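Course assignment 3, question 2. Fill in each field.
Student: A.L.
Task: Predict the tertiary structure for the chain below.
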Amino acid sequence: MSTLIVQSQRAPLPYRFLERCLASVREWTENAGFDYQFLGDELFQFLAPQVLDKTRGRVLIATDIARLQWLQHLLAQGYERVVWLDADVLIFAPDALQLPEQSFAVGRETWVQAGPKGPVLHRKVHNAFLQAAAGDSALPFYLQSAQHLVLANTGGMPDQFVGPKLLTALHNVVQFPVCELVNMLPPSVALDRLGKGGPYLTRYHQAYTQAPAALNLCSSAVASGELSEAQMNRLVSLLLETQSL
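Answer field:
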């Protein structure tokens, strides 16, 4: 099956650890025998003027829609399967990462945060990993739903409006296939992993059905100050060295 792995990030890269994440994906892609494509601002070329206008100043929302249109474009160009991976996804156990057999799949979001009585767990899905195959109706359905919500919206839109929030809402109804091997790493779990363990890491381990081989490192945690760039670099090194969380 002809397969293309797609990533995108505006230049220059805001953090050095992102290059290590991108390198991990490129190496895995090459070893798997897949094609690879990296995009800059050309990612947005298929966005309709109305969508561009509604998402002005909201680049994350625009990106969430643009990636769906780009994947559709690539399938129309003849690829049998296309896979999107966010630029802050690190593949740290490449031998364990196998793509799902299903024609459409999303990533797993296991989120652990502080609660009044200890760590609180939320299990959702995310679009940092998206797999679509030619002929499957899930990608057009997701794209149409995202565009409709953005164009119909008359109030504020959170950054995850048509990303994890919409995808999780749709998943709760239709139950998309989930690639459990590509999970998300909350800052609370990252800090425990950098230390000597802790309740957040323990709760995270208890929650997943398959040990992840790749993680969305949530680079937004650096922008928000929850993690420093130095901590993120240490985390990348630790994950690559141990090949486990």
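Instructor remarks: Strands lie at 3-8, 35-39, 81-85, 89-91, 104-115, 118-133, 178-179, 182-184, 214-216. The chain has a mean pLDDT of 96.
Grade: pending
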